[in-house]
Amino acid sequence: MRRLLIAVSLIALAACGQSPAPSTTETPTATTTESAASAPAATTTEVDEEILEAVAELPAPYNQANYEAGRRVFAQCRSCHTIGRGEPNRVGPNLHGVFGREIGTAPGFNYSQAVQDANFTWDAEHLNNWLSNPQTFLPGNRMAFAGVHNETQRRDVIAYLMVESRPEH
Ligand code: HEC
User: Fold this and answer.
1) Is 123 within the bounds of a domain?
2) Is pLDDT larger for residue 9 or for residue 72?
3) Ligand 1 atom with minimal separation from the 103 CA
């Protein structure tokens, strides 16, 4: 499986590296699907390929991230946050489309005074600082979470959030 993912990743990277001719990028996809041995395998491959392409298109260093590892890190957030478009706020606000969003503006969520008083737009750098240590970054906020102290895990979970928040998703 890992080897397959690497192969798919290389295809995705190769496809991205080519000049923007839609027919060139479509051909490998079609070939992969048709030549795949079984239908379930083909489905898995297509999903993985789409995600790997989305990761590869992220700005550095997030284009190097491990999406699967990021998904596992997000398990820590899931008890309080949803990520899907239109999903409800829980203990924390829904995080779909958090990038480019002004802090404290998820509709219908009752933020702490600290967050309401803060004034910036979420981008990877702010999120990286917030997740390093939420309480030092913004004292008085109500996110009861120690943070993600491992830099690689932060990179992976931020990339996961970016991919899950991409506009067409
Ligand atoms: C114990 C529950 C809990 C956990 C676990 C948690 N959060 Fe939160 N999060 C919150 C709460 C509550 C807020 C709102 C804070 C406030 O209003 O002060 C928040 C706010 C946020 C915000 C700001 C959103 C906005 O609309 O401005 C981001 C981004 C965020 N969390 C990301 C994460 C990520 C990523 C993780 C996992 C690595 C995580 N959180 C884990 C409860 C949690």
Assistant:
1) yes
2) 72
3) 27
User: Which tops the pLDDT comparison, 14 or 125?
Assistant: 125
Helix H, strand E, coil C: the string for the chain is CHHHHHHHHHHHHHHHHCCCCHHHHHHHHHHHHHHCCCHHHHHHHHHHHHHHHHHHCCCCCHHHCCHHHHHHHHHHHHCCCCCCCCCCCCCCCCCCCCCCCECCCCCCCCCCHHHHHCCCECCHHHHHHHHHCHHHHCCCCCCCCCCCCCHHHHHHHHHHHHHHCCCCC
Mean pLDDT computed over 57-74: 97
Q: pLDDT digits over 105-147, tens only?
A: 999 999 999 999 999 999 999 999 999 999 999 999 999 999 9
Name all residues whose Cβ lies below 6 A of ligand 1: 76-77, 79-81, 91-93, 95, 98, 103-104, 106, 111-112, 114-115, 127, 130-131, 141-145, 148, 157
In a domain, 169, yes or no: no
Structure-model confidence comparison of residues 160 and 35, the more confident one: 160
Q: Which of 11, 29, 57 is the last residue of a domain?
A: 57
* 76 inside domain: yes
Q: Which domain holds residue 29?
A: 2-57
Please state the domain count of the chain: 2
What pLDDT does residue 45 have? 60
